[in-house]
Structure formats: C-alpha cells, structure tokens
Amino acid sequence: xxxxxxxxxxxxxxxxxxxxxxxxxxxxxxxxxxxxxxxxxxxxxxxxxxxxxxxxxxxxxxxxxxxxxxxxxxxxxxxxxxxxxxxxxxxxxxxxxxxxxxxxxxxxxxxxxxxxxxxxxxxxxxxxxxxxxxxxxxxxxxxxxxxxxxxxxxxxxxxxxxxxxxxxxxxxxxxxxxxxxxxxxxxxxxxxxxxxxxxxxxxxxxxxxxxxxxxxxxxxxxxxxxxxxxxxxxxxxxxxxxxxxxxxxxxxxxxxxxxxxxxxxxxxxxxxxxxxxxxxxxxxxxxxxxxxxxxxxxxxxxxxxxxxxxxxxxxxxxxxxxxxxxxxxxxxxxxxxxxxxxxxxxxxxxxxxxxxxxx
Amino acid sequence: xxxxxxxxxxxxxxxxxxxxxxxxxxxxxxxxxxxxxxxxxxxxxxxxxxxxxxxxxxxxxxxxxxxxxxxxxxxxxxxxxxxxxxxxxxxxxxxxxxxxxxxxxxxxxxxxxxxxxxxxxxxxxxxxxxxxxxxxxxxxxxxxxxxxxxxxxxxxxxxxxxxxxxxxxxxxxxxxxxxxxxxxxxxxxxxxxxxxxxxxxxxxxxxxxxxxxxxxxxxxxxxxx
Lengths: 359, 225
Prior knowledge:
The complex is a heterodimer. Chain A is α+β, with helices and mostly antiparallel strands. Chain A contains 9 helices and 21 strands. Chain A folds into 2 domains: 223 residues, Rossmann fold, CATH 3.40.50; 120 residues, CATH 2.40.50.100. The longest helix of chain A is centred in the middle third of the chain and has 17 residues. The radius of gyration of chain A is 22 Å and the shape is globular. Chain B has one domain: MetI-like (MetI-like fold, Orthogonal Bundle). In chain B, helix 2 packs across helix 5, helix 3 crosses helix 5 and helix 3 runs parallel beside helix 9. The two termini of chain B are 33 Å apart. In chain B, 38% of the residues are buried. Classes of the chains: A alpha+beta, B mainly alpha. At the A-B interface, strand 7 and helix 2 of A face helix 6 and helix 7 of B.
C-alpha cells in the first residue's frame, strides 16, 4: 500500500545498536514504546533526517525521503514534517504568534496547511499569541510547540515524548488536546513514549522497541493482548477496550459497550454515543469456572481461554482469553491455573476488579 | 585642544569604526565555524585567532610590517593588486588592527553560538528553514548579546591599541597618529596638560560606551565581558 510509512534504519554508535524495519499505517497515532535506551528517539530523529542513518530507507505515502541505495537523502528542511521535541524549544526571541508563523510562512510556498487562528483555537492558545515564550507555563509552551509544528503543513507529525518534561497536572492539561488532534486531523502521528498510560490512551498502532530492536508492531488492542512480550513490557500487561457510552444509566453507573459485551463504571459525564477508551490490567482480572453468584464484583464476563503463558514472576501465569472477539488478559498464579484446570479452549468467567478509564 | 589632537581623535574613531565593521564581517564566519566544526583543525585555528591575546603587540606589529613590506608576501600581493605598500598608511593600520582585535570579536560570538546549542537550529530545520535561513533567523538573533560584546570589545580594543600602531603605522599626523600615540608624544614632550585632556577624554568615552551598552543589555555581563 502506498499509503503506508516505511522505515528501515540501522544505526550503530558505540555499544548502541538500532536495527528496525517497520511498515506503519499512514493514519492515526503510532506509538513507539520502550524503555530509555531502546532507540525510540534515535528512530524518530532518523525519520526526520536530523540523523542520517547510513543505508537507511524512509518513505511516506510513496514519497521517498531517504533511500541510500539510490543516493537519496532529503534534508530535514525539505521534508513536510512536524516535530515536537520533549522540551518545547520555542524560539525565545519570538512571540508566540511569530513562533507559530515560523513554519507557516516557510511552508506556505509548498502547500497551504492550517489557519493560524484555527490551530490556536484547537490547542487553546488563542489568548497567548502576543506573549513571549518565557512568560508561558510548561504546558502552554508545549501546546504552542505542537501548534507551530502543525502550521508547517506536515504530512507526518513526529512527537518525541512531548509530555515527559511536564508534571502530572500539565500532562492532564495537554492530553485532551492531543486527543482532539487525533480526532480532528488526518495526519499520521508517530509518538514516542515510555508511559504505558499515554500509549494506551492515545495510540492506535503500537511498536514496542527493546535495545534497538522491534519486539512487536501491530494494532494497539492486538499488541497489548499478546502474551509473548518480553518481561520489560509484561509488568504493565493489560488490554485496552474501545467502548461506546450507552444510554443505560442506573444506580449512578454508566454502561460502556464494546464488541462482544459491556461493562459498568461509575457514572460518566460523556453523552451517550461518545467513544471512551478504558484499560483493564491483567492483574485486575481474576477467573472462575462458574459464574459467581454471590460477589460484589460488578463486571463479570464470559470468555474463552486462548493461551496461557509464563510471566517474569515465578509462579504466575498470564491467561489470554476472548470475550466474543475482544481479547482480555488475566494474571493469576500457576497454582490457581492448575487447580481450575485452565487450558486453551476452556470457557471461564472473567471477574474485572477495576477498570481504568482513559479520559 | 589643538587641531592635531582633534585629528588624532577623529582618526582613532574612524579606525575603530572601520575595524569593527570588518571584524563583524570576518569574525562571524570564523566564530560560526569554530562553534560548529568537529574538524581537527579547530584547535589550531582557535589558537591562531587567540594569539594576539598573549603575544606582545610589538611582535604582531613586527611580523605584519615584514609581511606587508615591499619584500613580504603581503606586500607583493598588494603591489600586484595596485594597492601599493601598506605599512605607514591608514589601510595598513586597519589590517593590523583587524588581526590584533580579532579574538575580541571571535570569542564572545563563538561562545554565543555555542550557547545556542543544536536544538533551536534543529527545530528551525523541522520548520522548513534551510541552512542560510537558520543562520539569519535563529542563530544571529539568539547570539545578539555575543555580537554586542564582540563589537564593543573590538571597538574598544582598537581604540586602545598602541604597540601595533607604532610598529606598522608609525606616527604620521592625520594618517596613522591615533590618540594613544598622540598621548605618548605629549608625555614625551612633557606636555602633561594636553596629555590629560586626551587621556581623560578616552577614559570618559570608554566608560560611557560600556555603561550605555550594559544598561541597554544587562545580559551582556554574562557573555564574556
């Protein structure tokens, strides 16, 4: 498919090696997830042309930005991309408006992108245009940096841990704007992160990197439900459910529907029909062979076991199951697994102790 | 004040102004290269630029005199170009002063370029600015305090030079006799009153220039001066 993003880089620097060959969707948010030192940022910089990976290949939507086998390397300033760095890196000598115009003016010749006022509105910075970067809060600066990148009319938006330098409160301030970007823009975004929560909340596609290698690449839901991920990722094992707020409300609870079932959570303010992501950690799911009759647990779903895998903790296993077509993970002890006789194909009841709502 | 003194003052200001402009033109690319290069020549070039900081001015003046004289390579070049022989002329003085004051321009500007770091230039590249554009729209504005320091230091250092001027310029009224040389002449002749006028004038002038620029830009204090 020509709509895809193709990235193939091999970088060697001292002890560090990055060796990736990726095909990514040309829409939605792709998260590059991994620990520090896993090569996420190097990978992103290579995509932007800020670092030249010898022998590298990068193409988006059929447009080749780098193909060393044919001697092609388009310098960064000729690539239609937007890049948001970990620190906002606004130009301190320019006002917010002039920062935003920096890329806008230079991109105008190539292709008209967005309108400054509309983008300022989208990111909630309309009131800051005449201020200098030094007078902004960290969260405001990062929103200006995102706006500035968007105004350069990118075909690809690269974000390098844009929230990592911010405290929790600032993160909470920016996340809704990132979700709006996701919903309102058609540009593919590659988002580097080491925060499972951010990834679960924002990503559509997930690439797991470990020590410079791609461990897994696939849709968020499928990848998170895998049981064969290395221990570095198994700690936070759990699935993400895409749900829709249904009209059903009683006892101050909201019903969230997903493919194959529904769950109940504390009453949500979102209107019926709204999409809501929630995350169910494997450690918050327990299993029973018969439907428990006397239990305070609200969400009990029928499921079929599809796989059982060892975890990095001795005596614990990860059980993968399907609720209709929706995968779910449970982390239980090996003793429980043996006593209940849980094997692939076995029907079980999954008791969900907690649901983390990602909004 | 005698007309000879006024002539010396005028000549000094003219020399310092011309030299400052040339220093900006010559020093900026050198500072940029030194700030950004990973070349092994960086150390050698940096050392050559910094030589006037440690060498006695007479040594620089002596070598320039030899080089620009009729038998030196510089002298042959200027003659071939139809410019004549430069020692003991105003252009000769300008060339010598540019060499002599170069480190005072290059070092603050180089420090300022280095302080900017890679990031703002990378940001500019991701916003479609080419190398030349990045230099003018990001590096130069962000290095402004360095340019101000460099220009002040270059100007002030040229106003204050003595040894190099004497070696290569001699002491020709209205051509090469600058204020510092004129003061020396007055003192030699025991004309202390005239020497006081010029020396005091230099002191007040230098103080006012520095004071004005420091008040305009308090950040200057952190960038090399």
